[in-house]
Design brief:
The longest helix has 14 residues. It is built from one helix and eight strands, in the order ββββββββα. The strands form two sheets. It has a four-stranded antiparallel beta sheet with strand order 1-4-3-2. A four-stranded antiparallel beta sheet has the order 5-8-7-6, with no helix packed on it. The chain has one domain. The protein is mostly beta strands and 155 residues long. β2 and β3 form a beta hairpin.
């Protein structure tokens, strides 16, 4: 199972990396992608980012039945939006399937845009974020476990 989460890292000693094992809602996940990084520099620095995470041990074979790249038109209701009307390239977002599975996509391009009265119609190109295979997941879990061991000297 994939999920898209918003992470918040506060302070100068914080970090995040792809392959890191994290806990979300008392379940273990591996970070498979990081995007939309924003820094708040006032006071202690806070970094906000989106993370695509994959649940350890989950079956993700369902995803291979879906298109990897899609072009679609989206209607932005300009009168109901704030100043950020369109999606930036690189934006990550979730889509829930009819079977309640979560797909995560990344905006890779904008094909066109036009107005329909006061609504902005944008044709986006998006790609499906593919889950890691079992080997990649096992490698990340093993690396995480090894990083938690401490070497004790015999002195």
């Amino acid at each position: 199972m994939l999920r898209l989460i918003e992470a918040q890292k506060k302070g100068f000693n914080q970090s995040a990396e792809v392959g890191e094992v994290i806990e979300v809602d008392k379940e273990k996940y591996v970070v498979i992608e990081i995007g939309n990084l924003n820094l708040n520099r006032f006071g202690d620095p806070i970094i906000y980012c989106d993370m695509v995470v994959q649940k350890i041990g989950s079956d993700v074979n369902f995803i291979y039945g879906y298109k990897k790249q899609i072009v679609f038109e989206y209607r932005h209701k300009v009168t109901e939006m704030n100043k950020r009307v369109t999606w930036k390239i690189g934006r990550l977002f979730e889509q829930t399937t009819e079977d309640d599975e979560i797909l995560v996509y990344r905006v890779t391009g904008i094909e066109s845009f036009r107005y329909d009265f006061v609504d902005l119609l944008v044709t986006y190109r998006i790609e499906l974020i593919l889950p890691w295979n079992r080997y990649e997941m096992d490698k990340a879990v093993k690396t995480n476990r090894l990083s938690q061991f401490k070497v004790l000297s015999r002195n």
